Amino acid sequence: MSIIIWIIFGALVGWIASMIMGGGGNGLVINVIVGVIGASLGGWIMDYFGKSGITGFNIYSFLVALLGAVVLIAVVRALRGG
User: Which residue ranges make up each domain of the chain?
Assistant: First the structure.
């Protein structure tokens, strides 16, 4: 995917993940970072279980990225004690 698509994809995934985890109010940059790192983490998790990771701009990739972003937010909160 091109960098522009990654930014849009990351912003959308990060925003939805923060809404799911009850942490709304994050800025655009934080949402992009959470979404892009979450997509990488979700891809790694799916690879670990023998499934494909991010395959492009589609629903499956969105769900994989969302899984990774939610896991990322949960881990960061656990490490911060919140």
Answer: 3-80
